[in-house]
Amino acid sequence: MLKRLDSDLHRDPLDFTKYRHTGLFFEFPNGSTSMMHITGTAGIFEFQTYDNYNPEQSRRLASTVRVADLQESISEASIRSVVARTPVKNGPTDADWNCQNWVGDALTRLVAHGYLSASQRESAIDKMTDACLEAGDE
């Protein structure tokens, strides 16, 4: 069962829009949390999960975008499965693809499974884009 879904943005060493790292943060009703994201760079991205992680304790946290409070009838296992199966693009034509795209793709999959509405996804993407554009080193 899912309590809350956020998109978190972190500053990388330089705070440029294209370097802002994004991921999905889940808070479950039992109190457990999970940060799901991809790490790496073009051609070598990997999916990672950090369980019982609190992004608010990170000095690199730039922003949190509230995505949705999801129905408690959606199981934690279902959420984890849908998000973990979001394709990671490492092909030769994917040089411009990054963690921000992956978050959008994961949210699209959550919509396709009926866990989010299309308008919730669109709102989250808009807010995430705005937060990325707030990068301080540009």
Structure in words:
It is a single chain. The chain has one domain. It is 28% helix and 25% strand. The protein contains three helices and five strands; from the N terminus they run βββββααα. Strands 4-3-2-1-5 form a five-stranded antiparallel sheet, with helices on one face. A hairpin with a 6-residue loop joins strand 3 and strand 4. The protein is globular. The model has no long low-confidence stretch (mean pLDDT 86).
List strands and helices in order, with pairings.
Elements lengths: L3 E7 L10 E7 L5 E7 L6 E6 L9 E8 L7 H9 L14 H14 L5 H16 L5
Antiparallel strand pairs: 1-2, 1-5, 2-3, 3-4
- Structural class of the helices, strands and pairings? alpha+beta
Give the number of DSSP strands: 5
- As a percent range, the share of strand residues is 25-35%
- The backbone outline, from C-alpha atoms, is globular
Tally of individual helices: 3
Estimate the mean pLDDT confidence. Answer: 86
The number of domains: 1
Strand neighbour order, sheet with most strands:
4-3-2-1-5
Helix content: 25-40%
Please mark out the parts with pLDDT under 50 across 5 or more consecutive residues, or reply none.
none
Distance between the termini: 40 Å
As a whole number of angstroms, the C-alpha radius of gyration is: 14 Å
Keywords summarizing the entry:
138 residues; alpha+beta; 3 helices
Short description:
By secondary structure, this protein is an alpha+beta fold. The protein contains three helices and five strands, in the order βββββααα. It has one domain.
